[in-house]
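Hi team,

Filling in the usual template for the complex we talked about on Friday. All components are listed, including any nucleic acid strands or ligand strings, so the model treats them as one assembly.

SUBMITTER: L.P.
PURPOSE: interface mapping
COMPONENTS: two
RESIDUES: 278
SEQUENCES:
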Amino acid sequence: MHTDTLSTKALVPHTVDMQMEADMVLLGAWAVFAGACVLTLLLGAVLSFHWYSYAMNRAVSVGALILYIAGSVLCLALIAATILSLS
Amino acid sequence: MSAFTLLPEERILLQLRKHWILLLRDTAATIMGGILPVLVLGTLSITGSLPVELLPFMPFLQFLLSLWVLVTWLALAVMWTDYYLDIWIVTNKRIVNIEQLDLFNRRVASWRLEDVREIQVHVENIVQTFFKYGTVEIETAGEADAHERVEGIPHPERVRDAIVAQMHTVAPKTPTSDLATPINATLTPSG
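RESULT (copied from the run log):
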């Protein structure tokens, strides 16, 4: 009984440290996710500008934009899902 | 299309992109690079041969892989854009090469047909021979002699023939032909 009380006391700071570490990792992962979203948006804006300015066929520009948005949303959803599984 | 505007009485004879096999090659390589780590990790975890030391880091590895998939997707989008916006146009007056070098670097070059001095076609290896594409080199005369090399042109011989045929229809503006009429006009009355 005495031994058990001692071991529980010893574990408490360690558990708190681990929880803080996990929270920090999670925060970092969400920060990376936010960065990925910004990068995807910026690249999408640049590519759309090119498609609409220089492509000779407007239908191709629209198709490319739709495909880009769909693929990007899928990839970002995958990242978000893995972050949620981290927590 | 703002980078290229037709001149008065100009019409497009040929409009070419690089051969599709080049896009397929680059796309396949990028997809392989993107999928390979996912396949390796998936296979290792399914077969249970993943090192025990790595098991606690599995969610983190999955996070990194999902980021890698996004990077691959973005690379594919940039690659396709680069392919789609590279165009080679032959009109009845000139040859225009529009090249998207990277995202913020676009180059548009054009040569008048009467300035074209030499056209060379190179089909250099078995892949190019099989898929019927190659390199077209154009040498032009002018104040600064230009030498342009465009790779991955489908059916380069046909392109060369079309340019040569069009060159014959364009009357060359030589200094002699420009001067001939006034000199004769001056000489005739006195003679």
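MY TAKE: Residues 38 and 65 of chain B are 6 Å apart (CA to CA). The longest strand of chain B covers residues 94-102.

Thanks, L.
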